[in-house]
């Protein structure tokens, strides 16, 4: 059964559209189970009715014509109960609904299983038998459930592809197609989708049409010639080292590149109007499916050769193609997985929104997007990203939704929200030079998180009082090697000078986990529990010592440097780090640099540190909570995994209790404590943190004016009462709602979400 299932999934994955996928499913399942009928009913989101979309065994004329209400018949019963229903005599069941146009009166045995994807019922998969035939046994039921679970994601993806193309399940025009992910950076953007993808990755190539077929044919011809020459050159170079049977492998490649083989089929698809990379993708994936379905092991392995050949051809096609990406005036950048480098390719002032299939609200691209003030939606796992190229998109970074090809009404409503947000930002500019102080005189420092020099102007214009977290790994990530001491010193000096005399807290190199260096790869099965942060730099003191030396020399004459140690989980790590820092300090002084010993602090971001705050504070000058990682570790949730992104919640009771404890224990031994996670940039979160006693809040620059406005308008006693109220609650969602309601009642609803909810917007637009 496993081989049958594998072949089925591969075939369905290669289907061009939803209908082809469904036809493959019913045909293969009917054959595999030896049943007389196999059908698929899909739930149409527009009408909330189950529609017969494909069948083997019932009358084909009924496809697309027969539909049932959400709770109607046995199909509706399977969907509403969300579990299999296996009946020996279906017509005798009280929920049985007879449709003469299907011809199903001949069949009595019934087995239906729901098709569920991410808790959403997509439809029902059904097999049926005549009265005289066997009943469906437990093994058959288990097989059908397995098929349904395996194919749910494929069906969801195909359904989304059709919707983006403008068609609903019924073939009617689809309007304002909405996809939900997770909010990455707040705000609303309206612009044109530009899909970017890694080089030589066939899976993410958009399937675009072309108006210049001759150009595409010429480019593909050049790629074929170049790959053929590459293979001949390699074969010639290795000829003396290989036996004849091994040399024959190169002949296989060259035969595949013959005009009547793979290139011929690609050429045919280009002539049908597809651009060359898209045509190549279709043909290569078709070849791979055929080979992988073969029983012969040797032939199955040839799929690897086809995939390699496809990548080689694509690499040549892309040599000039990526450089010619056209970024419109209002670009919404779309990718399977956005990277900081992709953001940097868009001309200044033209990037208005970001959409990423992978990642969550706390991935580093999302954090960078918030710093840049670019509305972002992450974790759109069901979206056919390649279909968004060139489409007009609305990016709702507040609710974590995007709309493809919006109607004029929907666009107008969202444009109104954009205008409201612009007005709000302008209104907050007057607060830049005013202190962040509550109405009853409690003072809180507002700092910024940064890693780029481009953030400095924005940070200063928004009234930042210093840097609470300078991510020193950014200079390391933009190089193809470790930066020298002098290069690091120049980076650090820029930041220190820009904010002098205000403090700049520099975190020592924090790589590992979700931050990788291409020239220093760390391959681990569980990177978040592995070699990262201070663990890496203490194992490589040559990296740590050079970095600290560069920081100290950069601070000469300014003396506003503070050093922070990441991922501390025990006292020995602090003591070893301090020993190295003091050693460098004395060496730099001996070299003639007039510097002061900077304050040194630790980050509290793993649960072990929460319970050692007093011991840690005895050895350092300050503590700073990294609430993003602390939340991740407390809740055992990978913040970059969209499948569990909804479980990551900064307002979780366990997180709030931990934050209260940290602030209390730090102050008990007389040490200041700050927080530099994303919770600090949320107006409601900032109010709670201020009530807990945090001395400084560090956030992205875009959030600072809103946080300052809220804190200046409330009393600390009001915030303390709110904190006491929410600490009695046991649900993160209820806590967030309670905080939002309190802010709205206090007149700050406009800071939480300008305009209306997405549901209200869609309803109004319709």
TrEMBL record:
Tell whether Metal-binding is among the UniProt keywords.
yes
Q: Major location, coarse class?
A: cytoplasm
Q: What is its EC number?
A: 2.7.3.9
Q: What sections of the protein cross the membrane?
A: none
Q: Which ranges carry the GAF domain?
A: 17-165
- Residues forming coiled coils: none
Claim: Magnesium is one of the keywords in the record: yes
What InterPro entries does the annotation carry? GAF, GAF-like_dom_sf, PEP-util_enz_mobile_dom, PEP-utilizing_PTS_enzyme, PEP_util_C, PEP_util_CS, Phosphohistidine_dom_sf, PTS_EI-like
MF (Gene Ontology): kinase activity; metal ion binding; phosphoenolpyruvate-protein phosphotransferase activity
What cellular-component terms does GO give this entry? cytoplasm
What class does this enzyme belong to in the EC scheme?
A: transferase
Protein name per Swiss-Prot or TrEMBL: phosphoenolpyruvate--protein phosphotransferase
Q: Which organism is it from?
A: Marinobacter profundi
């Amino acid at each position: 059964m496993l081989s049958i299932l594998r072949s089925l999934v591969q075939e369905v994955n290669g289907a061009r559209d939803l209908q082809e996928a469904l036809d493959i499913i019913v045909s293969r399942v009917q054959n595999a189970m030896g049943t007389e009928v196999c059908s698929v009913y899909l739930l149409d989101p527009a009408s909330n009715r189950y529609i017969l979309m494909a069948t083997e065994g019932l009358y084909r004329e009924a496809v697309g014509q027969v539909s049932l209400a959400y709770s109607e018949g046995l199909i509706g019963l399977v969907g509403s109960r969300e579990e299999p229903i296996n009946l020996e005599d279906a017509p005798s069941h009280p929920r049985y609904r007879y449709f003469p146009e299907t011809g199903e009166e001949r069949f009595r045995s019934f087995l239906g299983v729901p098709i569920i994807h991410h808790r959403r019922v997509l439809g029902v998969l059904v097999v049926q038998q005549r009265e005289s035939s066997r009943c469906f046994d437990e093994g058959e039921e288990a097989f059908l459930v397995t098929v349904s679970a395996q194919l749910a994601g494929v069906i969801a993806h195909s359904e989304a592809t059709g919707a983006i193309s403008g068609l609903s399940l019924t073939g009617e025009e689809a309007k304002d197609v909405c996809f939900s992910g997770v909010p990455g950076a707040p705000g609303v953007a309206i612009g044109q989708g530009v899909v970017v993808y890694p080089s030589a990755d066939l899976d993410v190539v958009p399937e675009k049409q072309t108006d210049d077929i001759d150009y595409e044919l010429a480019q593909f011809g050049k790629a074929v010639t170049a790959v053929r020459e590459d293979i001949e050159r390699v074969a010639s170079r290795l000829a003396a080292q290989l036996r004849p049977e091994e040399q024959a492998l190169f002949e296989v490649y060259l035969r595949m590149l013959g005009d009547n083989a793979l290139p011929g089929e690609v050429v045919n698809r280009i002539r049908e109007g597809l651009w060359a990379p898209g045509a190549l993708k279709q043909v290569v994936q078709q070849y791979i499916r055929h080979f992988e379905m073969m029983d012969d092991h040797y032939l199955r392995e040839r799929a690897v050769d086809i995939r390699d050949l496809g990548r080689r051809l694509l690499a040549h096609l892309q040599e000039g193609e990526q450089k010619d990406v056209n970024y419109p005036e209002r670009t919404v950048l779309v990718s399977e997985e956005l990277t900081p480098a992709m953001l940097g390719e868009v001309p200044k002032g033209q990037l208005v929104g970001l959409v990423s299939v992978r990642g969550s609200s706390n991935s580093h691209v999302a954090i960078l997007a918030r710093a840049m003030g670019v509305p972002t939606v992450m974790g759109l796992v069901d979206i056919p990203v390649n279909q968004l190229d060139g489409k007009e998109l609305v990016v709702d970074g507040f609710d974590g939704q995007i709309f493809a090809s919006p109607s004029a009404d929907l666009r107008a409503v969202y444009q109104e929200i954009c205008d409201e947000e612009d007005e709000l930002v302008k209104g907050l500019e007057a607060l830049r030079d005013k202190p962040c102080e509550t109405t009853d005189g409690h003072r809180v420092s507002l700092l910024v998180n940064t890693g780029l020099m481009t953030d400095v102007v924005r940070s200063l214009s928004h009234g930042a009082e210093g840097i609470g977290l300078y991510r020193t790994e950014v200079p390391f990530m933009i190089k193809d090697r470790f930066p020298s001491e002098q290069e690091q010193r120049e980076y650090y000096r820029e930041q220190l000078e820009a904010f002098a005399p205000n403090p700049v807290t520099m975190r020592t190199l924090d790589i590992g986990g979700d931050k990788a260096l291409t020239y220093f790869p760390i391959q681990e099965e569980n990177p978040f529990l592995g070699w990262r942060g201070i663990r890496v730099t203490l194992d490589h003191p040559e990296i740590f010592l050079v970095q600290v030396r560069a920081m100290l020399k950069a601070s000469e004459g300014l003396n506003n440097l503070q050093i922070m140690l990441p991922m501390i989980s025990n006292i020995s790590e602090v003591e070893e780090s301090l020993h190295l820092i003091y050693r460098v300090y004395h060496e730099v002084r001996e070299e003639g640099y007039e510097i002061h010993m900077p304050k040194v602090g630790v980050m509290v971001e793993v649960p072990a540190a929460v319970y050692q705050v007093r011991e840690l504070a005895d050895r350092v000058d300050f503590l700073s909570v990294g609430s993003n990682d602390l939340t991740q570790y407390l809740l055992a949730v990978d913040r970059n995994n969209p499948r569990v992104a909804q479980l990551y919640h900064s307002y979780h009771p366990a997180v709030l209790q931990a934050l209260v404890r940290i602030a209390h224990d730090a102050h008990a031994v007389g040490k200041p404590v700050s927080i530099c996670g994303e919770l600090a940039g949320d107006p409601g979160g900032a109010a709670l943190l201020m009530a807990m006693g945090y001395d400084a809040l560090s956030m992205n620059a875009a959030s600072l004016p809103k946080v300052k406005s809220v804190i200046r308008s409330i009393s600390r006693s009001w915030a303390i009462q709110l904190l006491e109220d929410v600490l009695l609650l046991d649900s993160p969602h209820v806590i967030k709602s309670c905080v939002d309601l309190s802010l709205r009642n206090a007149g700050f609803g406009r800071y939480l979400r300008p305009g209306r909810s997405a549901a209200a917007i869609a309803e109004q637009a319709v």
